[in-house]
Design a protein that fits this description.
Blueprint lengths: L22 E9 L3 E8 L5 E8 H6 L3 H13 L8 E6 L3 E6 L7 H8 L4 H20 L12 E3 L4 E3 L11 H4 L7 H16 L9 H9 L13 H11 L10 H6 L1 H6 L9
Antiparallel strand pairs: 1-2, 2-3, 3-5, 4-5, 6-7
Helix pairs in contact: 4-6, 6-8
The structure holds adenosine monophosphate.
The site of adenosine monophosphate has 18 residues, from strand 1 and strand 3.
Length: 273
């Protein structure tokens, strides 16, 4: 179901010259690598948003101007129920402010850590919502490259995506080996994520980063006998996260048609508790 546009934060309005005085800033929602995120309200419309504050000094230090601008333009243009909206941005002399859709239920990471691991119905619902978001992104020539639990935020119903930097557990073989990577990068990480949702730990976890890389390159994937994970779920994981040859990985469309997804995922992305 399409979400209503916020009254004052439409795409046209994103070009408006927003300033900090247009917003009331509330409690902090989290801290990222390059700044803090706050709950905020646009004063005139009373529309609730998340406000990401990035310090220019940090962006300059890591020479990330171009990357940040590109990511902002991409995110601003994407429109999908499972893709977090960026409504607009503005800056002052030291900070950049991103006006983001507020994800009410926070990080999937936190929910998983609290639960330990998810049921097959929960995991399949999240994987299906994310796959639908990725199909939309790929159709628009966007490769996410950075899918991981911390980047997945939850609204009241399903999962949404947002972006930060990579962690080794989720690096794909072609990135570790420094080969050029393509859309199948996202398919690999979907398999890895599916494993972690079901078992509560990532599949290639190791003591050091080097050992994690080794396990990834050797596709050292094993399924513990805990949590009663079904063969159908393992089949989906193997067809994405155990294949070094990216061309053999299950396509996103085929993931949605996979019997495990068809049987377990909620059709509207509403995650069972
Ligand atoms: P980031 O800088 O994007 O890594 O964000 C840091 C943290 O702030 C995230 O891990 C979330 O806990 C929180 N956060 C970021 N964006 C939002 C949002 N749009 N809605 C709710 N919480 C958010």
């Amino acid at each position: 179901m399409a979400r209503p546009e916020p009254p004052k934060l439409t795409p046209e309005a994103s070009k408006k010259d927003w300033s900090i005085s247009d917003f009331e800033i509330g409690r902090p929602l989290g801290k990222g690598k390059f700044g803090c995120v706050y709950l905020a309200r646009e004063i005139k419309s009373r529309y609730i948003v998340a406000f990401k504050v990035i310090f220019k000094e940090q962006i300059e230090k890591y020479k990330l101007h171009h990357q940040l601008r590109r990511e902002m333009e991409i995110q601003n243009a994407l429109r999908h129920p499972n893709v977090l909206r960026l409504y607009g941005w503005f800056d002052d002399s030291v900070r950049i402010f991103l006006i983001l859709e507020y994800a009410h239920n926070g990080e999937l990471f936190k929910e998983l850590r609290e639960a330990g691991h998810f049921s097959e119905k929960q995991a399949a619902t999240y994987i299906s919502s994310l796959t639908q978001a990725l199909i939309y992104c790929h159709e628009n020539h966007v490769i996410h490259r950075d899918i991981k639990l911390e980047n997945l935020l939850l609204d009241n119903e399903g999962s949404k995506r947002h972006t930060i930097c990579g962690t080794p557990d989720y690096f794909v073989p072609e990135m570790v080996e420094n080969k050029t990577h393509d859309y199948a990068v996202d398919n690999w990480t979907l398999g890895v994520l599916c494993y972690e949702l079901l078992y509560g730990v990532p599949p290639f976890e190791a003591k050091s980063q080097r050992d994690t890389f080794k396990r990834i390159i050797n596709v050292d994937l094993s399924f513990p006998s805990t949590h009663g994970v079904t063969d159908e779920a393992k089949d989906l994981i193997c067809k994405d996260a155990s294949l070094n040859d990216s061309s053999k990985r299950l396509s996103l469309e085929k993931i949605l048609e996979h019997p495990w997804i068809v049987k377990n995922a909620h059709p509207e992305g509403i995650c069972p508790k």
